[in-house]
Amino acid sequence: MFQDILSAIPLGFFLAFLLGPVFFVLLETAAIKGFRAAVFFDVGVILSDVVFLSIAYFSTSKLLNSIKDDPALFVFGGCILATYGIITFVKEKKIVPNPEDTELRKLKKSDFIGLIVKGFLLNFVNIGVLGFWLGLIIVFGPTMNMDPERLLVFFMTVIGTYFVLDLLKILLAKKLNHKLTPIRIYRIKRGISIAIMVFGAILISRGLFPSELEQVENQVETILPNGKK
């Protein structure tokens, strides 16, 4: 059991620093909206991870492989991300926030619920997350004899490590709050919107051109070990 925990911790580190829309929005939320807002956003992300894990565990690997490689799902998820990025970009186009309105005000209960939902949906539309959890079950499940208790400890450790590191990221990002002028907040939000649009475009291209991207990935994998550019 202790060995399972040791195996899970590095994966938690990897997940915490995996670049994606959630990573950037979490830092933006922490810096602009504060510690509590970012924590509630992260709770939504973790809830979606739990849902993905449940799907991966209780479904057959054959079914999941067909789902995670379905081009339509990549296009659908990518369109949602891209649309979200475009909407937030346009929304911030002519709005430069006042420092007094940048979440220094007391957040309402509905705000926290909205942050949880936002974190959940932003992570859930990324079908690659399902592939990540499925891969962990396929790789590590047999080494634990698919023992439910060992798997529970393993994945709780992965998610727990991920959450603890996220708290550290939130605290570090929050320290930037006093340096955030209205124009910097405006630029950060627009930059995050562009990043989300880029991730959406990547998902769409993965759905529309799966074979071409697979060939590129295979070429990169053969070149990198030789140290060639």
Automatic annotation (TrEMBL):
Keywords: Cell membrane, Membrane, Transmembrane, Transmembrane helix. Its main location: membrane. GO terms for molecular function: amino acid transmembrane transporter activity. It is found in: Cell membrane. Coiled coil: none annotated. GO terms for cellular component: plasma membrane. This is LysE family translocator.
